[in-house]
Fold this protein.
Amino acid sequence: MYERTRFWEEGASFLLPPQGSTTAHEIDAVFWFITIASTILTILVTIAMVYFIVKYRRKSHADRPVLVHESKWLEVSWIVIPTLLVLVVFFWGFRAYVSTSIPPDDAYEISVKGQKWLWTFEYPNGFVSSGEVVVPVGQPIRFTMTSQDVLHSFFVPEFRIKNDVIPNRYSTVWFEAPREGIYQVVCTEYCGKDHSHMGAHIRVVSRSEFNDYLRNPPGANLPPAEIGAQVWETSGCRACHSIDGSTSTGPSWQGDWGAARPGSTQGTVNDEYIHQSILEPGAYITPGFQNVMPSFQGVLTDAQVNGVAAYIRVLNGAATAADTTMAEEAPETGAVPGAGPADPSQPAGLETGN
């Protein structure tokens, strides 16, 4: 569904991906200190072990052990040196932890919600995206995160940020990307069958491009069917619902439009059924499938839900002219159809001079 992080590229090291944030070097410094110190100690202990095995091996059955007196300096050294190393790691690591845990006062806040199996991002003006979040380069970004269902974990390898996302609680991470690019988000907490597909992208763009993105969000002026296709591609739908008639975790979107409602003795598969299946997925359970789909209430806008219905009609040859007609141009407020008005107390984007 998403490209996984490619570690072997410019700026990457033997064990770590490229540094994509302003605080990544602090995490890497602690990592390399622990790795190098542990490697040196392992080599020294191994050499000493082999030396003592050879030197003090039993040469004959007549050999008898000799009383050995301890060395005060040796005992002090193997107590003091490891203690100093642990203290260095503790204070160095604590300093890196503090700097990567407390966001700057001017951080731009975005709300993040995890659910099986996608990430959604809500901007201060009310615009919601899924599968991808766009942020400006050189601006501290704070993610306030929670989970709609089970325990997830938000991890961006290049930024060196990782935090658990827990239902009914809020956690935060922050970063500042000094370069434009696309960075991979993965879930590192097993959260169900399609855990490995729970990915997203962080797209770092220029300040002006970010402002344009919020004023004219993707999908705002697309035909409904194309909006629905975007939802299927980016909101986790494709992980469970095929569009070619094949079965997966959930039923295919092809072949059912106008047929009798699965799991019901009355009604057909129509707009009302699609809306209810998205917002209240437990209302009708297709025979042969389990009730595992989460609700997308508050995740998808009305325009996106309507787009899904239009896309399903297109897949089943029942599209109307409205399904493939360009929507009216949305006002430049950073809002999208169905998302409600933008918050007047928040800017649509970030000013160029900020």
Notes: Residues 1-5, 329-348 have pLDDT under 50 and may be disordered.
